[in-house]
């Protein structure tokens, strides 16, 4: 059977997510090597700049459109995605491993009764099959897995697969109007944390821990993050103390992250925390205790007082 | 309405992972196993719901004899009955989901809680898989849950915010930290749990779709350099980030 790839393109507020561009790029690279067909699908109402996915090597996308699809609904989206994937008959289906991808991929896996590998950090071709790398135990170990069903679904961890420069190519967009949608599960409100980047999707993260001593001291973490265009994160200790929301927590009972730059401030580096951030490309540690485990994974460290170093860092970056 | 809570028996998050000689799983020697942390929120929500609307809470765990330890703890927290779906095989997510779905159907449960993910394989898809098999509604990564009659209003965490969702039972809710404050087992609960019988049912692998070729430790990061011990090191740090790492 000839190989065919289907990439799910995720939109929120009518904009394509960066993690979906990563899936498109990875999918098109694999398809090129395997000489396979590739197409994409997006579900939503108005979606901006869909033709731009051509810049990442995918020149065909179907837009399943209805006004009721502006907001995500697990029941509506799953039904449409599963139906489209069945008709597409692609044998490799790629999605970003986001809150939406983690709902859609399992629904499809059940319908197709096929293999599902989530949160992949690498996908390679070996003897004509896809082999995926998937971290387990929050990154304390890594598994390499293969699938043995005619079709397989992979979800890709955001921020891991490189995007590169988009070309000027434009994709052909086919709009398919959907008559009725299944809203047995309906989103009645979306609340956004004001101007906040999510740690799972950020290129740079500035995290604070117990060493910050109080909730109000996270102001300087936020200021440093704002200066860098970064998301703010926190250690479990800071979350358990009630200083920060759980959505900021990095580590084994929080989020596993792989940004380009991770700055850990006042974090000693408990094993649960290290597991969640050690795959960051560059790590900076600022901590008073020069023997803190965080320095064992840091590329650059300042073994000094965060209350002196962080304000100086903010000033230096303003220059 | 019968409520089911699915619980997993996992290595404590403080565990230092070593790979076993088969190169496919972790070495479980010397590892302390606990109730999966996210499942504690699921148990609490199941118990709160039971206290509000009556009926019983059943706990289901799939695994080997050792999972009984987790089931005892769950019973001690106030769960009424516990079922062990016993297997010594290493099942992939889909096989586990199929076995859980069979038992949930057996129990005729219309409301199911479980943690949003197990802190061992970190797949975070079990609730969604089981919901798809049973045709139940799903709210994954829930941070609040309200039931009135058949109607559910719940919040779930998404990237950079949350969604408020309206749906109905039958439904599966996967619990995120922050959903509630899990209770501790009372002494009375612990004593009562000791006397309870854990029902056992044997589960056989129906064949995995995903096979582990090998498990490895992540590449070890070489320790970096300490740039300085106070604020005077900041200009050098910024220079390194700009010129050497090229990340800002």
Structural description of this entry:
- The complex is a heterodimer of chains A (319) and B (248).
- Chain A folds into 2 domains: 4-177, HUPs (Rossmann fold, 3-Layer(aba) Sandwich); 199-318, Rossmann fold (3-Layer(aba) Sandwich), CATH 3.40.50.1220.
- Chain A is 25% helix and 30% strand.
- Chain A has helices at residues 18-34, 74-88, 101-112, 218-228, 236-240, 271-277, 306-318, and strands spanning 4-9, 11-12, 15-16, 37-44, 60-65, 92-96, 115-120, 122-126, 129-136, 141-147, 152-156, 172-177, 186-192, 204-208, 231-234, 261-265, 282-286, 300-302.
- Chain A has a 7-stranded parallel sheet with strand order 7-11-6-1-4-5-12, with helices on both faces. Chain A has a 5-stranded parallel sheet with strand order 15-14-16-17-18. Chain A has a 3-stranded antiparallel sheet with strand order 8-9-10, covered by helices on one side.
- The mean pLDDT of chain A is 95.
- Chain B has a single domain (3-202), classed as HUPs (Rossmann fold, 3-Layer(aba) Sandwich), CATH 3.40.50.
- Chain B has helices at 37-53, 67-77, 93-107, 126-134, 187-195, 234-244, and strands at 3-6, 9-11, 33-35, 57-63, 81-86, 111-115, 137-148, 151-158, 161-168, 171-175, 198-202, 210-216, 225-228.
- In chain B, the strands form 2 sheets. Chain B has a 9-stranded mixed sheet with strand order 9-8-7-10-6-1-4-5-11, sandwiched between helices. A two-stranded antiparallel sheet of chain B has the order 2-3.
- The N and C termini of chain B lie far apart (56 Å).
Largest sheet of chain B: 9 strands, mixed
- DSSP strand count of chain B: 13
Q: Assembly type of the shown chains?
A: heterodimer
- Widest beta sheet: strand line-up of chain B: 9-8-7-10-6-1-4-5-11
Helix/strand structural class of chain A? alpha/beta
Helix content of chain A: 25-40%
* Beta-strand residue fraction of chain A: 25-35%
Q: How large, in whole angstroms, is the Cα Rg of chain B?
A: 21 Å
The third-level CATH topology of the largest domain in chain A is Rossmann fold
Looking at the overall shape, the CATH architecture of chain B is 3-Layer(aba) Sandwich
Mean pLDDT of chain A: 95
Q: What's the CATH class label of the largest domain in chain A? A: Alpha Beta
Q: Count up the domains of chain A.
A: 2
Strand order of the largest sheet of chain A: 7-11-6-1-4-5-12
- In angstroms, what separates the terminal alpha carbons of chain A? 59 Å
Shape of chain B: globular
The percent of residues in helical segments of chain B reads 25-40%
SSE order of chain B:
EEEHEHEHEHEEEEHEEEH
């Amino acid at each position: 059977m000839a190989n065919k790839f289907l990439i799910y393109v995720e939109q929120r507020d009518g904009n394509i997510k960066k993690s979906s561009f990563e899936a498109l790029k990875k999918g098109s690279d694999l398809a090129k090597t395997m000489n396979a067909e590739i197409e994409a699908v997006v579900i939503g109402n108005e979606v901006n700049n869909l033709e731009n996915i051509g810049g990442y090597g995918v020149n065909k996308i179907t837009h399943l459109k209805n006004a009721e699809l502006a907001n995500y609904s697990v029941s509506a989206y799953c039904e449409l995605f599963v139906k489209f994937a069945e008709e597409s008959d692609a044998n490799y289906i790629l999605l970003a491993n986001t809150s939406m991808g983690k709902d859609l991929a399992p629904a499809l896996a059940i319908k197709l009764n096929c293999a599902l590998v989530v949160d992949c950090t690498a996908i390679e071709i070996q003897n004509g099959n896809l082999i995926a790398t998937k971290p387990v135990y929050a990154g304390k170990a890594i598994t390499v897995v293969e699938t043995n069903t005619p079709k397989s679904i992979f979800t890709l961890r955001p921020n891991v697969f490189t995007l590169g420069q988009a070309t000027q190519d434009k994709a052909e967009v086919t709009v398919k109007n959907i008559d009725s949608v299944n809203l047995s599960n309906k989103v009645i409100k979306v609340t956004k944390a004001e101007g906040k980047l999510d740690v799972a999707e950020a290129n740079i993260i500035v995290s604070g821990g117990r060493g910050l001593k109080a909730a109000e001291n996270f102001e300087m973490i936020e200021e440093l993050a704002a200066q860098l265009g970064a998301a703010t994160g926190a250690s479990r200790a800071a979350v358990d103390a009630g200083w920060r929301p759980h959505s900021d927590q990095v580590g084994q009972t929080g989020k596993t992250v792989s940004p380009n730059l991770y700055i850990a401030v006042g974090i000693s580096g408990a094993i649960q925390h290290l597991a969640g951030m050690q795959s960051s490309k560059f790590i900076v540690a600022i901590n008073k205790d020069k023997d803190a485990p965080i320095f064992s994974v840091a590329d650059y460290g300042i073994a000094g007082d965060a209350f002196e170093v962080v304000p100086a860092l903010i000033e230096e970056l303003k220059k | 309405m019968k409520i089911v809570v699915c619980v997993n028996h996992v290595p404590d998050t403080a565990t230092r992972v070593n790979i076993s000689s088969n190169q496919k799983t972790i070495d479980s020697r010397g590892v302390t196993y606990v109730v999966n942390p996210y499942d504690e929120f699921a148990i609490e929500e199941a118990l709160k719901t039971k206290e509000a609307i009556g009926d019983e809470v059943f706990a289901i765990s799939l695994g080997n004899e050792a999972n009984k330890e987790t089931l005892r703890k769950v019973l001690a927290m106030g769960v009424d009955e516990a079922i062990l779906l016993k297997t010594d095989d290493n099942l992939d997510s889909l096989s586990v989901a199929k076995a859980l779905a069979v038992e949930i159907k057996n129990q005729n449960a219309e409301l199911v809680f479980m943690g949003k993910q197990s802190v061992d394989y970190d797949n975070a898809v079990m609730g969604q898989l089981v919901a798809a098999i049973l045709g139940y509604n799903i709210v994954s990564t829930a941070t609040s849950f309200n039931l009135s009659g058949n109607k559910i209003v719940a919040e779930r965490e998404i990237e950079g915010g949350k969604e408020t969702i309206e749906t109905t039972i039958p439904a599966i809710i996967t619990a995120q930290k922050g959903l509630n404050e899990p209770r501790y087992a009372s002494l009375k609960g612990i004593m009562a749990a000791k006397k309870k019988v854990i029902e056992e049912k044997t589960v056989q692998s129906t064949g995995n779709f995903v096979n582990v070729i090998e498990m490895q430790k992540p590449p070890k990061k070489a320790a970096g350099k300490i740039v300085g011990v106070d604020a005077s090191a900041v200009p050098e740090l910024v220079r390194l980030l700009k010129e050497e790492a090229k990340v800002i």
